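Continuing the batch. This is chain 6 of the set; chains 1 through 5 are on the previous pages. Same settings as before, nothing changed between runs. Recording input and output for traceability.
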Amino acid sequence: MPPVGPDPTPHHGGGTPPNGAPAPTTFNGAMNAPTLNGATNPPALNGAPAPTTLNGASPPTALNGGAAAPSSNGAPTAPSSNGISPNPGPARPTPWKDPSFRRSLALFRAFRREQEDPEYCYSLLARDAADQVEAYGGPVRGRTVIDVGGGGGYFTEEFRLRGAHAYLFEPDVKELGTEPPAGAVVADGYLLPLADGAADVTFSSNVLEHVSDPQTFISELVRVTRPGGLIYVSFTNWLSPWGGHEWAPWHYLGAERAHARYRRRTGKAPKHTLGENLFAVHIGSTLRQVRARDDITVVSARSRYWPFLAQTVVRTPGLREFATWNLLLILRRCP
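Output for chain 6:
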């Protein structure tokens, strides 16, 4: 069952830092902000300024040229010596089957509590998403997971609880909140300050509809994923009942009307503006584009929240644009 309000998942991953943020510097062509809160930048790569971490901890060693420690599957991961050790505690899988009515109902109830208890809402969503990653790619323990545009870091923290070396890359300082995960990096999602193939898993939840060039964004996710690695991409498509986010479902009548209605009803400007930080991304065109690529294979294309026929609805042209609600793509980087 889909959410009853604007998709609450933290999102923003492709844009540059917001107005008023420190002027970015370059990192081999990638965008990153100067040191924040007195943190010390990690070593530079090829002489370029290194990206900012918020508390002085270093991103993956694949970022700064160091030799990464091998994971259980032989893929490079970040060593614990960088100050961001994975939590060795037990995994916390959700107690339901995916898809199922029980799962959809639990997420529905969590979304209803998003305003009053965001910690509960986002933490449950993060557990569910981590379950999905592990269902398609195996346990994340000991592996390097890159969370692109993860906002306050709920997904990053969940992956760390499962033993992963997880890192958050977020362009909007305001989205990070007051207590971002250790080692969070302010970086542009189009140009991540990471070496090719740095991640075992690259994760992006509800970011694609917030970037003006989705295919370039996906290309960057592919670039930083190792051959054979997993890429998780989820987004709310424009014709979904929640495609307009906080001004949905009135986006069906046009963005301008929906904006005006939101202002009248709330007395404030909406967070999202079509063409600025929200874009009309469609399922059919996105599927055609990813299937046409020769550097990835599509493992699964399904509705993220739907309780039944999660893959079937995505196979039906026309209907899928309205009924999918939120498209989940599981992609694998070709060797």
